[in-house]
Design brief:
The structure is a homodimer. In chain A, the strands form two sheets. Chain A has a nine-stranded mixed β-sheet, with helices on both faces. By secondary structure, chain A is α/β, with parallel strands linked by helices. Chain A has helices at 4-16, 22-30, 33-41, 54-68, 77-85, 121-126, 139-154, 167-177, 199-208, 223-236, 250-260, 275-287, 295-301, 327-334, 344-351, 355-367, and strands at 89-91, 113-116, 128-132, 158-161, 182-185, 210-213, 240-242, 265-267, 290-291, 371-374, 377-380. In chain A, helix 1 (4-16) crosses helix 3 (33-41), helix 10 packs across helix 11 (250-260) and helix 14 (327-334) crosses helix 15 (344-351). Chain A has three domains: 4-74, no CATH class; 91-301, Rossmann fold (3-Layer(aba) Sandwich); 315-380, Winged helix-like DNA-binding domain superfamily/Winged helix DNA-binding domain (Arc Repressor Mutant, subunit A), CATH 1.10.10. In chain A, a hairpin with a 2-residue loop joins strand 10 and strand 11. Chains A and B meet through helix 7, helix 12 and strand 9 of A and helix 7, helix 12 and strand 9 of B.
Chain lengths: 391, 391
């Protein structure tokens, strides 16, 4: 699906349209990225003939005009290469690292994701929760965010947040301290790295987890950009926890996205005398959010399982029957130990496949719930361990 | 219904059976108190012939044996008179001061209530909430109990609690500070006055509200007695709020009673790091208790209206049609001002009735939602003001 031409066209479009532009998402339902780009550049002489449907005609034509004004934003091949040399990678729908649960966003699905870090975005989000909340968090809120994230991370749950001060930073720090997966979805570009005061935290996330953004690497975050970004935090997760939030906090916007995406919304209570718990109490009282006081409560509400679209509710064993695995995957799985860990190169040699194949198979097996990562490699997951979590 | 003989028999039985004894309650469904007492004293030669039904035979006969062992506990007329001289009054089912919502307790309905204080038990409970919680409350919990009780009392809601240290004391103090009604339901006798450290609080409640107990005045509270007492707190109220409670706290027992009696159960959240909020969080998370953060939340859950059995859910005006009032009540109602207040003696003179009749009518009109007390007297309630509260 993702030919080089299509990849280049998607990247180009991501510099023209605003993040989450539903007009572009709708256009990409019936057209390739190259076709849409051709409409904008006018490179296709029959460009207008590609438009179908009267109402789409108008909406799309206007959008194409807007995008055309920004053609100068498309970076040169050299600039793209420089970003990639600086440690950024591009992940697109259909790529192995693409988290398929983002497809739940429909027409507002990100065009591309810029990713930086040693973690594997898709695997980190397979079993994950979002932990979000106030930037101006209290000591209580930060303590709770760190504790909750650390215990969840210890149990193999990825912690997704927005890289902001306060609750977000506490969530990332807790997951890092527990040696777990964490994913920071930034509202600005990854090279811009907002907020600057969290640079050290971002470096730690890069070394152990993943930094993600749908925005061009150099772009500065905008106020509406934070709200648009929140849909990605909600969509990546299997459930969203608000630790502290004032009334009308941005965290409540994330909760609304989670609710719309059918992700369980959870909230941590706090003193009724604290304005930073008022939003949490409102979520519980008026919007049916579940009150959680510990990681066990969270695991009771979040159905963990395989990543994205292939999931269909709770289950009691690996999602993919072992019988349905391809021969290479079966060979690889045979060489993943139940106790201890084995590195991918060693697994590849023993399974008689090349390293790329081994890595592809391991990723697929992890998504299927057969294997999990451990320090220095992989180990087989005990049968039923996923379904054994309370729900 | 309450002839002198029946009253004396009820009082005697209340010294023989334990509070809330369902065997006695069941026996009183088909027999008068005098008849049951006759079974115990053997005064009725045909005593055994009064027993009906084989299974009741056995259960009641055994209970009668137990009660017979305690015949020596029945106080002399002089002792009863001394208690009444000390400011205690006896209130029984059918009396004007009897809160008819206690009838919801069925066979565990109290036989009699000992009451002390200037308040009117039935009127204080017409629109009331119970506020209960941990004895070893935190500063946060006490602050919340006082605030919540004060604001509710200011809005004319009676505050019912158990007279214990901690949350209970805070609830009574808040209501007193706001000049409102408060009812302390003690687990021991009113003359015993447990806990002793709350003696000054009890004196303040006596001066402005009501102290209540179903136990003989001199009786010492027992551990099971606290749990049995909790049913009265729940039954008197239109809703119960737990402000702070550790797991396995007695306040959770009160919440269970409230749930069984179909009274809304509410809980105040607190820090998840506080063991004294753990019971509240459990109520919200696992038992469907409603999270409340302020008096407005409470009023949104509690349907205020007329007292006891004559209530049938929410309503938009006084429960009793004005047409159904007796002529004396109509005459009294005519003389209760809509603005300002008028004392009962003045109302009696203007209405052309004696003071006792005026007081009886005012009580009835208050229960019917037509009038309400104010400083120094009574005023007419604006039509629809009760139903105008959010619910």
């Amino acid at each position: 699906m993702n030919s080089d031409g299509e990849r280049r066209a998607r990247v180009a479009l991501s510099f023209l349209a605003k993040p989450g532009d539903p007009v572009l998402g709708a256009a990409l339902r019936t057209r390739t990225a190259s076709e849409v780009l051709a409409l904008v550049t006018g490179a296709d002489a029959d460009g207008d003939a590609l438009l179908v449907g009267e109402s789409e005609d108008v909406v799309l034509s206007r959008a194409v005009e807007r995008w055309r004004d920004r053609l100068g934003e498309i970076p040169s091949t050299a600039r793209l290469a420089a970003w990639q040399d600086s440690g950024l990678r591009l992940v697109m729908p259909g790529d192995p690292e693409w988290p398929t649960q983002l497809d739940d966003l429909g027409d507002t699905r990100p065009l591309v994701l810029w990713v930086r870090g040693t973690g594997h975005l898709r695997l980190a989000c397979v079993n994950s929760v979002a932990i979000v909340g106030a930037r101006a968090a209290t000591g209580y809120g930060q303590h709770v965010a760190i504790e909750l994230a650390a215990v969840l991370a210890e149990k193999g749950v990825g912690v997704i947040s927005g890289g902001a001060y306060g609750i977000d930073a506490g969530a990332h720090r807790g997951a890092l301290a527990a040696g777990g997966d964490t994913v920071a979805v930034l509202a600005g570009g990854l090279s811009f790295g907002y907020p600057q005061g969290n640079r050290a935290l971002f470096a730690a996330i890069e070394a152990q987890g993943v930094l993600v953004s749908e925005c061009p690497p150099d772009s500065r975050p905008t106020r509406p950009g934070f709200l648009v970004r929140n849909r990605i935090i909600a969509a990546l997760s299997r459930g969203l926890i608000v630790v502290e939030a004032a009334l009308r906090s941005g965290a409540l916007n994330s909760a609304r996205h989670a609710r719309e995406l059918c992700r369980p919304v959870m909230a941590v209570p706090g003193p009724i005398t604290s304005e930073y718990s008022a939003g949490c109490h409102e979520l519980i009282r008026d919007y049916g959010a579940m009150l959680v006081t510990c990681a066990a409560d969270v695991l009771g509400h979040v159905v963990l399982g395989t990543g994205g679209a292939e999931t269909a509710g709770p289950r009691s064993g690996p999602a993919t029957a072992r019988d349905s695995l391809d021969p290479a995957a079966v060979a690889v799985l045979e060489e993943v130990p139940v106790r201890g860990c084995r590195g991918p190169a060693s697994i590849a040699v023993r399974a008689g496949v090349d390293l790329d194949t081994a890595l592809r198979c391991l990723g697929m097996l992890a998504v299927g719930g057969f294997v999990e990562r451990c320090e220095g490699g992989w180990r087989a997951r005990r049968s039923g361990s996923v379904g054994g979590l309370p729900h």
